[in-house]
């Protein structure tokens, strides 16, 4: 019985095992099939991707998109807005490359013109209506006003003059600083002052008188209707004098008819060791000259004298190394040819020579022999049409090495001679 049970158990086990083993191939086959199908799908995907990659590589590259303009809004430390563009396509015209408002320290690394950027965008209605105007609005207003009055007022560049006027009102700002903060609002008082100056300039008053100052050989000099506005031609006169003093130690100088003091102070500035004297017949002019000497911290001795009067020699220092003058030399016949701004505003006593355009030069040529040391120089500014006649007067007065020099505009302007040896 035990043997029968054992045999039966063994047979059942074998059958059980057989069922299990018979069923197993089906499970294994299913797993294998699944793995095979998964592998096929992976291979299929790889082939597809690879084909796509090969097609992408084989296909020509699409053209690059044009470089796009990117404008970054920057906040300057003043809290005002400025713009700067980056990534601009090479070769684009400057008008398209330049931002409207350039932050100066950013713009230094880029190729921008020396002129400040033009403000292409007009001020918005909100900008014009909300409170005091901006600098932008005032500059546009000033340029329009001066452009309308340009011919009669002698305005050369309306935009530039409007900038000078506004910069002066705002505290002598540089043009770069003015444009960097062009949307900044001004105060009501600043706007009123600007418009008052603008009105004076539009009515023909010279810009230097409106501003109250001008520049001469690096000096900022006050000017008023009591004095002639210094001209570039007079810088040529100063240069000629400085050349003749190169070998003179501690030169003694007299500027006759000093006006604003521009000649005397330029010599004092460029030859600090010089003993500089200056005279004028006008008390008002002497007041301006003294104020300029104080403002420039330059030493010069001013006194009142008329170069045509007999007392001129008594009041003037002797033993001069240089006698220099820019006397009135415009003939009365040319009065009508001068610009209205000059004819109507600058002092006629400093401009016009009267009936005899050479009478000041006769007096100076006569005084030179008594005032100059041997080897001293007489250097005079003259009318271009009278330079040779003035040179003849100097020769008649006994001066030697008399010559005529041209100014920067190619006109005969300076007549000079040496006394004695």
Structure description:
This protein is an alpha/beta fold and 421 residues long. It folds into 3 domains: 70-107, no CATH class; 134-204, no CATH class; 213-418, Rossmann fold, CATH 3.40.50. The chain is 47% helix and 15% strand. It is built from 18 helices and 11 strands. The protein has helices at 2-58, 94-97, 104-107, 125-129, 135-148, 150-153, 158-169, 175-180, 188-202, 207-211, 232-244, 262-270, 283-296, 312-315, 340-345, 348-351, 359-371, 387-396, and strands spanning 70-75, 81-86, 213-216, 219-222, 252-256, 275-280, 301-304, 320-325, 372-381, 400-406, 412-418. It has a 7-stranded mixed sheet, with helices on both faces. Strands 1-2 form a two-stranded antiparallel ribbon. A two-stranded antiparallel ribbon has the order 3-4. α5 (135-148) runs parallel beside α9 (188-202), α11 crosses α12 (262-270) and α17 runs parallel beside α18. It is elongated and about 70 Å long. Mean pLDDT is 77; it is low at 1-11, 13-32, 42-59 and 61-122.
Task: Name its key features.
421 residues; alpha/beta; Rossmann fold; 3 domains; 7-stranded mixed beta sheet; two-stranded antiparallel ribbon; 18 helices; elongated
List the helices and strands and how they pair.
Elements: H1 2-58, E1 70-75, E2 81-86, H2 94-97, H3 104-107, H4 125-129, H5 135-148, H6 150-153, H7 158-169, H8 175-180, H9 188-202, H10 207-211, E3 213-216, E4 219-222, H11 232-244, E5 252-256, H12 262-270, E6 275-280, H13 283-296, E7 301-304, H14 312-315, E8 320-325, H15 340-345, H16 348-351, H17 359-371, E9 372-381, H18 387-396, E10 400-406, E11 412-418
Parallel strand pairs: 5-6, 5-8, 6-7, 8-9
Antiparallel strand pairs: 1-2, 3-4, 9-11, 10-11
Helix pairs in contact: 5-7, 5-9, 7-9, 11-12, 17-18
């Amino acid at each position: 019985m035990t043997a029968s049970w054992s045999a039966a158990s063994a047979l059942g086990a074998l059958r059980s095992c057989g069922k299990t083993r018979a069923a197993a191939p089906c499970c294994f086959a299913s797993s294998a099939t699944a793995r095979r199908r998964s592998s096929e799908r992976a291979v299929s995907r790889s082939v597809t991707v690879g084909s796509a990659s090969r097609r992408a590589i084989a296909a020509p590259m699409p053209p690059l998109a044009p470089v796009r303009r990117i404008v970054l809004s920057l906040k300057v430390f003043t809290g005002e807005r400025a713009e700067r563009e980056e990534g601009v396509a090479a070769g684009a015209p400057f008008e398209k490359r330049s931002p409207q408002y350039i932050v100066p320290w950013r713009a230094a690394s880029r190729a921008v013109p020396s002129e400040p950027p033009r403000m292409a965008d007009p001020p918005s209605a909100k900008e014009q209506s909300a409170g005091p105007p901006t600098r932008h609005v005032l500059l546009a207003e000033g340029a329009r006003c001066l452009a309308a009055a340009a011919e009669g007022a002698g305005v050369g560049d309306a935009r530039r003059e409007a900038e000078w006027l506004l910069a002066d009102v705002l505290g002598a700002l540089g043009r770069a600083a003015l444009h960097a903060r062009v949307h900044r609002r001004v105060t009501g008082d600043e706007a009123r002052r600007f418009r008052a100056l603008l009105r004076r300039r539009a009515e023909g008053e010279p810009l230097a008188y409106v501003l109250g100052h001008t520049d001469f050989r690096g000096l900022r000099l006050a000017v008023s209707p009591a004095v002639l506005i210094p001209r570039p031609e007079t810088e040529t006169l100063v240069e000629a004098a400085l050349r003749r003093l190169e070998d003179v130690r501690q030169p003694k100088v007299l500027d006759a008819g000093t006006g604003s003091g521009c000649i005397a102070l330029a010599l004092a500035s460029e030859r600090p060791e010089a003993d500089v004297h200056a005279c004028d017949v006008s008390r008002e002019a002497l007041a301006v000259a003294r104020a300029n000497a104080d403002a420039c911290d330059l030493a010069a001795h001013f006194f009142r004298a008329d170069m045509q009067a007999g007392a001129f020699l008594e009041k003037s220092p002797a033993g001069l190394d240089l006698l220099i003058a820019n006397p009135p030399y415009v003939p009365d016949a040319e009065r009508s040819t001068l610009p209205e701004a000059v004819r109507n505003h600058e002092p006629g006593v400093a401009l016009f020579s009267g009936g005899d355009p050479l009478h000041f030069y006769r007096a100076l040529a006569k005084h030179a022999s008594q005032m100059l040391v041997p080897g001293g120089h007489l250097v005079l500014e003259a009318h271009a049409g009278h330079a040779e006649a003035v040179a003849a007067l100097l020769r008649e007065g006994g001066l030697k090495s008399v010559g005529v020099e041209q100014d920067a505009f190619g006109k005969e302007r300076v007549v000079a001679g040496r006394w004695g040896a």
